[in-house]
Design a protein that fits this description.
Structural class: mainly beta
CATH superfamily: Superoxide dismutase, copper/zinc binding domain
Number of domains: 1
Helix content: 10-25%
Order of helices and strands: HHEEEEEEEEEE
Number of strands: 10
CATH class: Mainly Beta
CATH topology: Immunoglobulin-like
Bound molecules: copper (II) ion
Oligomer: single chain
Radius of gyration: 17 Å
């Protein structure tokens, strides 16, 4: 009887597009799905924490016709280049953030933006921290979407996290680009409740 029963993936995608257009009612519905409902300029924002539980930055996601743009603003981070990826579980338990699982890889590819058999959907270019411990990082990817329901959705059932590593990612060595330890983590989407 009701037409609401037929709403599915396509209507979810439409909802996401509508919120980008500034529909505040829909924005509220969408933000609830993220761990941190706070917004910056209307975009979902997640807080980044280090191994001591200190907040060291924020991650903001926006989507447009070019893909999903991730912006990271951080401070109090160690100097140098660091691997950064979307990981497959939306949990960030310090100090080692092992609960975030491995790289988000719903398509079963190998690791690395420069790997001919890659990349993982969650692979991203390295993040650079300056001598003052701050970073201002922006990258655009087409391999993930924040929209729920898509196979490569950051809101898949396990949720997703953004993990920053101690070492630079070589972007070609499977499975993790020799990135070594995890120094910071943000829950992008929390795990969804089981059935
Ligand atoms: Cu990683």
């Amino acid at each position: 009887m009701g037409s609401g029963a037929s709403r599915g993936v396509s209507s979810a995608a439409l909802t996401f597009r509508a919120l980008l257009g500034g529909a505040s009612l829909l924005l509220g519905m969408y933000s609830v799905a993220f761990a941190q409902p706070a917004t910056q300029g209307g975009a979902p924002t997640a807080d980044i924490y280090d191994a001591n539980g200190q907040m060291v930055g924020t991650a903001t996601l926006t989507e447009d016709a070019n893909g999903v743009t991730l912006a990271v603003q951080g401070s109090g981070m160690p100097l140098g280049e660091h691997g950064i990826h979307f990981h497959e579980i939306g949990r960030c338990d310090p100090p080692n953030f092992a609960t975030a699982g491995e790289h988000f890889n719903p398509t079963g590819m190998e690791h690395g933006l420069q790997n001919p058999r890659g990349p993982h959907a969650g692979d991203l270019p390295n993040l650079t921290v300056g001598t003052d411990g701050t970073t201002s990082y922006t990258t655009t990817t087409t391999t993930v979407t924040p929209a729920p329901g898509a196979p490569n959705s950051l809101q898949w059932p396990n949720g997703t996290a953004l993990v920053i590593h101690s070492n630079a990612d070589d972007e070609k060595t499977n499975p993790a680009g020799n990135t070594d330890g995890r120094i910071a983590c943000a829950v992008i989407a929390p795990p969804q409740p089981g059935p």
